[in-house]
């Protein structure tokens, strides 16, 4: 299987800890996908990096993970996420700087790579909408999974409707206060015959689609240290099971177990 992960790879800067860690949704998912998918599967990261010291950290992390890469080097800065942590371990995204990824678009070589994918995974959020749009406009024959990463900040379904015909599966990080939005997402999933996965933190997760909702409890955690990347880890765990078995309930449980391990340490991997 050829897995292509197209999106953000950058640095997570923990302002209260004075600590930099390689991160970004795509890098986080890639790290866990390489661990969870069979070694015979290829895992390829497609992204753009700047010409700063943060790019060096990301390149070293990718080499250490043993994943394949398609990296565009563009003059400028690599994406940077500033993070603070509450005493509970809950992350606070202080600010985000997309750097060169903001102007990057998939070209001919990138489209050729995407076309070969059996599984394409890409995050969507407003700062990289242009790049994401270029990825989704690139045809591929396999499963296409999208993480609508900032929908909790802007609880509307407009972007989901924009891209729903070009995806098979989507992830949404929400909480139980978003019940009306979850209902609206379920209506889209049923109407368009897609599979939507909503993660709800300590309240578990739920799958939405053609049939009844499939809920899954969160895996027990002794102590939450850092929730950064929990959803990315969940996605990698879910996908590693789903592409093999197509069993949604088992895939939810696998995602929950993997996410529980992540939140017990600093950093997404």
Query: Under CATH, the topology is which?
Result: UDP-N-acetylmuramoyl-L-alanine:D-glutamate ligase
Gross CATH architecture: 3-Layer(aba) Sandwich
- Outline, from the CA principal axes? globular
Low-confidence runs: none
Number of structural domains: 1
CATH superfamily: Ribokinase
* The CATH C-level class name: Alpha Beta
Radius of gyration: 17 Å
What's the arrangement of strands in the largest beta sheet?
A: 5-4-1-8-9-10-11-12-13
Helix content: 25-40%
**Strands, total number:** 13
Largest sheet: 9 strands, mixed
N- to C-terminal distance: 23 Å
How much of the sequence lies in strands comes to 25-35%
Number of helices: 8
Mean pLDDT: 97
- The helix/strand class is alpha/beta
Order of helices and strands: EEEHEHEEEHEHEHEHEEEHH
What does this structure look like?
The model has no long low-confidence stretch (mean pLDDT about 95). Strand 4 (about 40-50), helix 2 and strand 5 form a beta-alpha-beta unit. This protein has helices spanning about 25-35, 55-65, 110-115, 130-135, 160-165, 180-190, 230-245, 250-260; strands at about 1-5, 10-15, 20-25, 40-50, 70-75, 80-85, 90-95, 120-125, 145-150, 170-175, 195-200, 205-210, 215. The strands form two sheets. The chain has a nine-stranded mixed beta sheet, sandwiched between helices. The chain has a four-stranded mixed beta sheet with strand order 3-2-6-7. The protein is globular. It has a single domain, classed as UDP-N-acetylmuramoyl-L-alanine:D-glutamate ligase. It is about 35% helix and about 25% strand. By secondary structure, it is of the alpha/beta class.
């Amino acid at each position: 299987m050829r897995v292509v992960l197209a999106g953000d790879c950058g640095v997570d800067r923990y302002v209260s800890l004075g600590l930099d860690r390689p991160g970004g949704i795509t890098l986080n998912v890639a790290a866990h996908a390489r661990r969870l998918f069979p070694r015979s599967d290829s895992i390829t990261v497609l992204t753009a990096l700047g010409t700063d010291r943060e790019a060096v950290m990301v390149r070293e992390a990718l080499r250490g993970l043993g994943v394949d890469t398609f990296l565009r080097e563009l003059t400028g800065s690599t994406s940077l996420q500033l993070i603070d942590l509450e005493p509970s371990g809950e992350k606070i995204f202080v600010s985000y700087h997309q750097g060169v990824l903001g102007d990057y678009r998939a070209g001919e070589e990138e489209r050729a790579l995407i076309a070969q994918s059996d599984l394409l995974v890409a995050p969507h959020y407003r700062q990289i909408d242009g790049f994401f749009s270029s990825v989704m406009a690139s045809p591929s024959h396999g499963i296409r999974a999208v993480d609508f990463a900032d929908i909790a900040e802007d609880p509307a379904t407009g972007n989901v409707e924009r891209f729903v015909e070009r995806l098979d599966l989507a992830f949404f990080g929400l909480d139980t206060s978003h019940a009306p939005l979850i209902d609206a997402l379920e209506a889209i999933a049923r109407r368009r015959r897609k599979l939507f996965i909503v993660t709800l933190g300590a309240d578990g997760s739920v799958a939405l689609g053609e049939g009844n909702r499939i809920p899954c409890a969160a895996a027990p955690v002794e102590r939450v240290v850092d929730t950064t990347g929990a959803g990315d880890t969940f996605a990698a765990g879910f996908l590693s099971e789903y592409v093999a078995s197509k069993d949604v309930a088992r895939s939810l449980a696998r995602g929950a177990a993997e996410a529980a391990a992540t939140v017990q340490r600093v950093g997404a991997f």
